[in-house]
Amino acid sequence: HGAGGRAAAQLIEELFLAAFDNDYLRQGNDGAVFAPPPLPPGARLVMATDGHVVSPLFFPGGDVGCLSVHGTVNDVAMSGARPLYLTASFILEEGFPLADLKRIVDSMAQASREADVPVITGDTKVVERGKGDGVFISTTGLGVVAPGVDIAGSNARAGDVILLSGTIGEHGVAVLSQRESLEFETTIESDTAALHTLVAAMLQAAPGGVRVLRDPTRGGLATTLNEIARQSCAGMLLDETAIPILPQVDAACELLGLDPLYIANEGKLIAVC
Fold first, then answer.
1. Cα(135)–Cα(100) distance, integer angstroms
2. Cβ-Cβ contacts under 8 Å for 97 (sequence gap 6 or more)
3. What is the pLDDT of residues 182-240, one digit of tens each?
4. Strand 62-63 to strand 44-52: parallel, antiparallel, or no bridges (unpaired)?
5. What is the pLDDT of residues 106-133, one digit of tens each?
6. Please, how many CA atoms are within 13 Å of residue 118, restricted to the half-sphere of its CB?
7. How far is 188 from 175, CA to CA, in rounded Å?
8. CB 269 within 8 A of CB 200
9. What are the φ and ψ backbone dihedral angles of 160, each rounded to 5 degrees?
10. How far apart are CA 16 and CA 272, in angstroms?
C-alpha cells in the first residue's frame, strides 16, 4: 500500500476519499486549490499543526481519529480563530489491520463533519513493520481571527481571573486505564471534543474581555498555566478546592500516585479574563 501503485490508489479512493469526501479532495491533486474567504480589514489567518501518537489508539470516549481533528481545531480556536480547513498526514505501520484504519478514518471524518471543518488534502505513507506504532496522524488547521480579537499567552495581567470550562483529567486517566488494563468501578471516558463553538460564543458574549485561551492538553492544567505565567510574567494563585475533578478521576489519580492537575485533557479550555 505504500508503493504508490494500484493498492495505494485503491486505499485512497475506497477509504480516505470515501470518508472525507468533498470538492477539494475530489480534485485529485497533490494540494487543495481554494479561494480564501474575504477577510475584512484587520482580520488575520492562523495555522496550527499537531502530531497524534496516542497509545492505545482506541480508548473509552474516543480514538486517535477524532482526537486528531479535535486537537487541531482546538489549537486554532485558542487564538480566537474560526477554523476553516484541515489537512491530514497518515503514517501507517506495515501490517496494520485495514478494519482498524477504517474505524479511525470514519471517526475522524465524523468529527470533521460535526465541527464543520473539512479535511481538504492529505498524505499517506507506510513504514516497515516495527518502525511505527500502528498509526501516527499529523493534522494542520487553518483559521481566521476576526478584527479586534487579540488573544495570546502574553496578555495575562495582575487582577485577571482564570476560568476553567469543566472537569479535568478524564482524557489522561481514560487513556492510561486502557493502556495499563486498569478497571475502576465506573468507566472513565475521554473528554475529547471540539471547542471552537464555545470560543465563538465567549467572544460574542464578552468582546474584548478574554485575554488568553488555552486547551490544557499534554501536561494538564498546571503545566499550561505555567506556560501562560512564563509568557506573560504574571504570577497566579489557584484555589484548588474550586478546580472541578470527577470523584472517579480523583480516586484513580490517588490510586496511581498522580496529580490530576498534570493530567492531559482534550475537551476543556482555560480562559484568562
1. 10
2. none
3. 777 678 999 999 999 999 999 999 989 999 999 999 999 999 999 999 999 999 999 99
4. unpaired
5. 999 999 999 999 999 999 999 999 988 8
6. 14
7. 9
8. no
9. -70, 165
10. 39
